[in-house]
TrEMBL record:
GO terms for molecular function: 4 iron, 4 sulfur cluster binding; metal ion binding; quinolinate synthetase A activity. HAMAP family: NadA_type3. Catalyzes the condensation of iminoaspartate with dihydroxyacetone phosphate to form quinolinate. One of its GO terms (biological process) is 'de novo' NAD+ biosynthetic process from L-aspartate. It comes from Natronoarchaeum philippinense. The gene is nadA. Keywords: 4Fe-4S, Cytoplasm, Iron, Iron-sulfur, Metal-binding, Pyridine nucleotide biosynthesis, Transferase. Its EC number is 2.5.1.72. This is Quinolinate synthase.
Amino acid sequence: DESERSERIDAALDALGDDVVILGHNYQRREIVEHADYIGDSYQLSKEAAAADAEYVIFGGVTFMAESADIITDDDQTVILPSMEASCPMAGMAEALQVDAAWAEITEAAPDEEIIPITYMNSYADLKAFTAEHGGAVCTSSNAHLVFEWALEKGDKVLFLPDKHLGENTAHRLGLEDETADWDPWDPEGKDAEEVAESDIILWDGYCQVHERFRDHHIESIREDHDDVNVVVHPECRREVVEAADVVGSTSTICEVVEEADPGDTWAIGTEIHLTNHLDRWHPEVEVVPLCGDACMDCNAMRQIDPNYLTWVLEELVAGRERNVIEVAPREKELAEVAMNRMLELQG
Ligand code: CIZ
Ligand code: SF4
């Protein structure tokens, strides 16, 4: 049962001492975040991993996050992902090989112009490496606008990967909403060379199914059902949802607005359901409601991290065996780090 499993996890952690740090993404289930040394979004967690001296970093999250942690941490730190099946579907929508093929078509559509790729943190290391090779940078949901501005100053156009909604929301924020073209690599008619030639921002057709689920009618109904409700959503949501919300921001921003709310305030949350449930538990004085009620989704990649797998990787470490190590190949690692550092320099 749960308490027995929890005791086994604690016993393994006692045996491992300072050798291990456990990171829990905001979207992980309660049984995982309860054992985490740090809870946060992917970027915060990678920084915690780098700052920690621990030899082993156990990442309660998805593959691209564990890869980023491996890139940022020291060479003598080992990153472990409790399940090798925990792969973000959105990151999988822009595979480096596929993007490489599309790059030829896109650059051909605008032969005299310089296109700068910008890749969201939610992507695999090989795509981040591709980005660096073509003069681009990585971004997070909090600094996408800064990275877009940098790229448009340096070049003529941006190719944004993989999340079309974050790309469209960022274009809006910069007043460039009429300057976008869609690029759907799966649909021959969704690849319009003329449109690419005329636009400043090319949006790859990826999306997060958890965030795309939210619609503006959910916001309308929640406002009808709750007096004085405030709505906060993640910028991976559709444009119509971001437009109708009161606040838009990263998972850290979502946590902050609930932390800073006055007792009795009501906040409707447009993000992965585990975070909404954590916020409801952590802040009993605030009324926290899921933006689309029972239709709100959990993330099928995050869900792969079962507490039994956490128990297994820890007990294996106690027995001297490293399981599920996430290690980015040296050349890819070096280039991906260049693309991530470009972002950090812009943030100042
Ligand atoms: O949607 C995600 O996976 C997010 C927001 C991840 C993160 O922590 O940046
Ligand atoms: Fe990927 Fe969406 Fe899950 Fe985040 S919530 S890991 S973007 S599928």
